[in-house]
């Protein structure tokens, strides 16, 4: 862990890089640029605003804001003022939002104009002591001079990330800001980009770790800059490479669904534009969900940049990462090399070995429905990831074979549901696949295979051809109990398929 605290590190960073660009905000005419000095001014002003509203109150702040400079500044300001910051997803239902507030019991809620009076009245009915403030795009920000004296501290600063996990029950993962900052620096040092002023593109939701940590803290800790944008959607696919050029992006961090979309739409993009972006892009990361080696190779063939896969959990941050400096001994089917300061443990005698990890960046615990923090269950300091893994001593590469919960026993035979999904994706018409375990009267366990077709192409001929192909790829005991075709997989804002929702079909 760092001997310095986040507060002193970050303030010194802003002062040493005062004329460098920290944030870029999209605009139809000219992008809005915010230097590190501007950033520090805004942080100080917002901290005074927070201190005023949280005086003699619990320092827990919730927001329901879109990806924005306001969300970024509130997060950084709370992190520099011994506060707890909980960004709530804008895409959730009203019921989910109210349940999150009941668990959080925040002192301050900062919301966009999308929060109407009906919902505000329902919040008041929760009988929690809360101040509700509409952001309205500003907090009366102005060019606060650097001479204003304010004390910064981050010893007690925390990030609370909402999750429904696989059960649908709401809870929060509680992480220390200091650990996130140290993990960001560890990641940058591993990749040799701790002093690279890369420009990243933040189009992952800022209510999840990908948007707050991967695409905000990591770029800033490496003295880089961040283009703040709305979360990625279908319309983004056609404008991706043009915006890449316009805003001078040279580092990307995407999830597998975005990679697949870019591969699919690549034929509609001007080849000259792709050539320009190929030349500019210097590093590309992918993570949050599994991606096949074939997809990584297709991306490299089209766009000329190797996707470096990362593996980790919100509870642990990064456990492993691929590296462009070790191409000779890498393996495209793996998830990279074990990160420095991280240790793993596998039971080599087991047929299916769960990965356990010891890391200095481990979360504090889960904030549950009662409002208390459940500390993580450890065995000799190792946290169980729930992933079935293997480690190659020769290549030093980690391989994730399945989620523990995705290994079922059907009539005495073990079936890896991740393997089923990857085989289904080889079918020409299939764009997404999700194998969901179910209880079976005869076999004990079985599974239903949900498929989403490319371009929503669906007719009897395609269905029969796809089912035949899947059956031919699998031993009969591995056949799904049922195959269901679905137009749109339910997803979290970070792009992960929510299997617990598929169980309702």
Write down the overall geometry: globular
- The Cα radius of gyration reads 23 Å
Average pLDDT reading: 87
Q: Percentage of helical residues? A: 25-40%
Uncertain stretches = none
Number of strands: 26
Strand content: 25-35%
- Terminal CA distance reads 46 Å
**Taking strands numbered 1, 2, ... along the chain, how are they ordered across the largest sheet?**
6-5-3-4-7-8-18-19
Count of separate DSSP helical elements: 14
Largest sheet: 8 strands, mixed
* Category from helices, strands and their pairing: alpha/beta
Verbal overview:
By secondary structure, this protein is an alpha/beta fold. Helices cover 31% and strands 26% of the residues. It contains 14 helices and 26 strands. The protein has helices at 6-16, 36-53, 69-79, 94-104, 117-125, 177-191, 209-221, 236-246, 256-265, 271-280, 293-303, 417-424, 460-473, 499-502; strands at residues 21-25, 32-35, 60-64, 84-87, 108-111, 131-134, 158-163, 171-176, 199-202, 225-228, 251-254, 283-286, 307-313, 317-321, 337-338, 343-345, 354-358, 365-367, 373-374, 383-392, 397-403, 407-410, 413-416, 430-440, 444-453, 482-485. Strands 6-5-3-4-7-8-18-19 form an eight-stranded mixed beta sheet, with helices on both faces. Strands 11-12-13-14-15 form a five-stranded mixed beta sheet, with helices on both faces. The protein has a four-stranded mixed beta sheet with strand order 2-1-10-9. The longest helix is centred in the first third of the chain and has 18 residues, at 36-53.
């Amino acid at each position: 862990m760092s001997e310095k605290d986040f507060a002193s590190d970050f303030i010194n960073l802003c002062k040493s890089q005062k004329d460098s660009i920290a944030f870029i905000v999209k605009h139809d005419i000219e992008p809005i640029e915010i230097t590190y000095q501007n950033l520090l001014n805004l942080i100080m002003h917002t901290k005074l605003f927070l201190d005023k509203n949280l005086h003699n109150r619990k320092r827990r702040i919730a927001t329901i804001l879109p990806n924005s400079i306001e969300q970024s500044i509130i997060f950084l300001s709370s992190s520099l003022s011994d506060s707890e910051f909980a960004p709530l997803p804008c895409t959730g239902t009203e019921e989910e939002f109210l349940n999150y507030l009941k668990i959080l019991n925040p002192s301050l809620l900062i919301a966009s104009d999308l929060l109407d009076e009906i919902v505000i009245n329902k919040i008041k009915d929760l009988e929690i002591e809360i101040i509700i403030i509409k952001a309205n795009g500003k907090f009366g920000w102005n060019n606060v001079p650097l001479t204003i004296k304010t004390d910064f501290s981050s010893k007690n600063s925390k990030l609370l990330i909402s999750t429904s996990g696989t059960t649908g029950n709401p809870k929060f993962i509680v992480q220390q800001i200091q650990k996130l900052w140290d993990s960001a620096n560890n990641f940058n040092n591993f990749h040799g980009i701790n002093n690279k002023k890369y420009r990243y593109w933040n189009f992952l939701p800022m209510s999840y770790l990908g948007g707050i940590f991967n695409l905000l803290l990591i770029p800033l800790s490496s003295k880089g800059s961040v283009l703040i944008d709305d979360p990625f959607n279908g319309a983004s696919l056609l404008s991706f490479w043009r915006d890449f050029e316009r805003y001078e992006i040279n580092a990307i961090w995407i999830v597998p669904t975005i990679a697949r979309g870019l591969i699919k739409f690549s034929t509609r993009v001007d080849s000259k534009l792709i050539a320009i972006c190929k030349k500019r892009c210097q590093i590309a990361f992918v993570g949050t969900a599994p991606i096949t080696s074939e997809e990584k190779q297709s991306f490299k063939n089209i766009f000329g940049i190797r996707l470096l896969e990362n593996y980790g959990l919100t509870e642990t941050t990064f456990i492993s990462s691929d590296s462009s400096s070790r191409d000779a001994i890498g393996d495209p089917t793996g998830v990279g090399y074990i990160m420095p300061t991280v240790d793993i443990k596998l039971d080599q005698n087991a047929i299916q070995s769960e990965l356990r990890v010891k890391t200095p960046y481990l979360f504090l615990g889960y904030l549950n429905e009662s409002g208390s923090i459940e500390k993580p269950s450890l065995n000799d300091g190792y946290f169980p990831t729930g992933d079935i893994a293997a480690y190659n001593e020769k290549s030093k590469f980690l391989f994730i074979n399945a989620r523990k919960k995705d290994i079922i026993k059907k009539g005495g035979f073990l079936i890896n549901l991740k393997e089923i999904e990857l085989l289904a994706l080889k079918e020409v018409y299939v764009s997404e696949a999700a194998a969901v375990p179910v209880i079976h009267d005869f076999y004990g366990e079985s599974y239903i295979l949900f498929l989403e077709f490319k371009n929503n192409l669906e007719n009897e001929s395609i269905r029969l051809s796809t089912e035949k192909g899947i059956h031919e790829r699998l031993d009969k005991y591995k056949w799904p109990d049922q195959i269901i075709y679905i137009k749109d997989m339910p997803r979290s804002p970070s792009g992960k398929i929510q299997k617990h929702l598929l169980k309702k079909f």
